[in-house]
Structure formats: C-alpha cells, structure tokens
Amino acid sequence: MSEADLDLGSPEKRRTLWIVLWLNVAIAVGFLLTGYFADSNALIANGLDNSSDAIVYGLSLLALSRSRTWKRGAARFSGIMLLLFAGGVVVDAIRRYFAGSEPIGAMMMTMAAVAAVVNLLSLYLLKKLENKDVNLRAATTFSVNDFVSNGGVLLAGIVVIWTGSNWPDLLVGIGGIALYGGVDILRDAHQDIHEERGTEHRAKK
Fold first, then answer.
1. Rounded to whole angstroms, how far apart are CA atoms 90 and 190?
2. Residue 69 to residue 140: CA distance in whole angstroms
3. Residues of the chain with pLDDT > 70: what percent?
C-alpha cells in the first residue's frame, strides 16, 4: 500500500492527535503539581513523561503529511526522548533515596486514577485510526505505557499508605516502562525501513 492510500493528512488523524496532545498537556500539569505537593517521584516522573509525549504528538502532527523518511526520524526522536526521560527518572529516584522523601499515598492514588481514565480515552481514540504509520504507532505506544504506569502509581500509593515508606514511590518512578517503550519505538522505526524496501531484518551473527 502506498503512502497516498493511507491518507496521512486526513482531518480525522489530525483531530485525534490534537485531542490527545491537549489531554497529555493537562495530565502533565496535573502530575507535576500533585507530584510537587505530594513529594512523589512517581508523579513527577509521569508528569515529565506526559510532557515529552505532548511534544511527540506535536511532531506526529507535523509528520502526518511528510515523507516516510521524515516520519522515521521523528519516531526515532520520540524513542530517544523516552530513553533520556527514563535515565533522568532513575537519577532523581537515587537522589530521593539518599536525601529522603515523604510521598502522600492518597494524592498519588487520586491523580493516577484520573490519569488512567484520560489515557484510556486517548488509547481508544488512537486505536480507532486505521493504517497507522510509524509515528501514529509510536503515539499508541506512549498511551499504552502511560496507562500501565498509572496502574503502577496507583499500587504504589496503596503500599505507601500501608507501609509509610517511600520505596514504592521510588520503585515505580524508576522508568522501566519508559525504557521498554523507547526501545520498542526505535525497533519499530528500524523495521519500517525494511517494510519500505520489502526486505527482512536479519540479526548480525
């Protein structure tokens, strides 16, 4: 199927990405504010994650009517951003481990629950789109990662209340989900090259 057949710049795809972009901006603000007041590494990590997602959705909007090569470049940028984000979260978690923190479990649970509903809505909107290119697949990966991460924050909030310790907050904030997502997006962008050329990826021996 050619790129023209995909109707990459269709109003439906642009509208969906705009909606998901602004939903991520709203969630990011909510996470960062509650993370600050709740002294939570996991909430701040999710806020930074959603901020990077919003940037990527903006890139995806630019990529809709661009060449396949440009799209792969934008997708690679998305994957690298997620990997950098994951590294930054690990550094902050280590800092909090030695400096100490007192996360508020109830605020963690409330924000995570709200974000989970919004991310489910984003995922539903993205799943409805057909013939997704590498950037739209990256956008879907972000929403899946975010939803799973929200579940982790919710569980961490419960354990924080139960134990009175900060380790569940730090553990969830480490960013393993973002690390996996970044690698997955980079792998998908590489596979797209083989799809365009009609070749198969062969692992080096």
1. 27
2. 20
3. 71
